[in-house]
């Protein structure tokens, strides 16, 4: 190879194989991203003074989210595995974001999960799971968590992401307990 045609080339192996610098830099960048792409898990929980069936009814009534849910004030669609939901995510200090997510798990009375992606899971994937655990006969523990992965994971969360999930948990607790008290009266 002449000196002119070797310009912009770099040796990439012990055998001295030469490749364009741009190809080497691209492969190094993507290898680094693959190793360091963020994974963030947000996990919150709260105990609600109502049985799981009562909490489940409110949590899965997507049409009522606008009445009580400060984190996801709008949600519509069919809550069945494989179905799409349209949601509006509201986070403190950040512009609201509309997303279409896919329901990936549904265990009535116990758990549901949806996944939202941007292009591919390597770019961005948010897996939001809500689990209901009985605590005695008349209490429920809500575990509200999201696993965020991909290259853009660190850019889509706020400095204190738990705050939004905790606000949702408190609002659900208040609504369910208020409804439970009203039905007893």
Can you describe this structure?
With 185 residues, this protein is of the alpha+beta class. It folds into two domains: 1-36, no CATH class; 38-184, Alpha-D-Glucose-1,6-Bisphosphate, Chain A, domain 4. It contains five helices and nine strands. It has helices at residues 3-6, 21-36, 52-59, 65-68, 162-184; strands at 9-11, 18-20, 38-48, 74-77, 84-91, 94-107, 111-118, 124-134, 140-150. The strands form two sheets. A seven-stranded antiparallel sheet has the order 3-9-8-7-6-5-4, with helices on one face. Strand 5 (84-91) and strand 6 form a beta hairpin. The longest helix is centred in the C-terminal third of the chain and has 23 residues, at 162-184. The chain is globular and about 50 Å long. InterPro entries: Polyketide_cyclase/dehydratase, START-like_dom_sf. It comes from Haloferax marinisediminis. This is SRPBCC domain-containing protein.
């Amino acid at each position: 190879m002449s000196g002119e045609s070797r310009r912009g080339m770099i040796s990439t192996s012990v055998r001295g194989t030469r490749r364009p610098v741009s190809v080497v830099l691209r492969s190094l960048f993507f290898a680094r991203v693959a190793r360091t792409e963020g994974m963030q898990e947000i996990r919150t929980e709260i105990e609600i003074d109502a049985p799981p069936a009562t909490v489940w009814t409110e949590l899965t009534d997507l049409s009522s989210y606008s009445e009580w849910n400060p984190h996801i004030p709008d949600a519509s669609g069919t809550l069945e595995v494989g179905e799409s939901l349209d949601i509006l995510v509201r986070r403190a200090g950040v512009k609201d974001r509309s997303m279409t997510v896919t329901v990936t798990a549904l265990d009535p009375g116990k758990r549901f999960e949806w996944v939202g992606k941007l292009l591919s899971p390597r770019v961005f994937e948010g897996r939001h799971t809500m689990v209901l655990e009985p605590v005695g006969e008349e209490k429920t523990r809500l575990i509200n968590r999201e696993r965020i992965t991909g290259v853009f994971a660190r850019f889509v969360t706020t400095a204190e992401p738990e705050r939004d999930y905790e606000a949702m948990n408190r609002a659900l607790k208040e609504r369910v307990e208020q409804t439970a008290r009203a039905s007893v009266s």
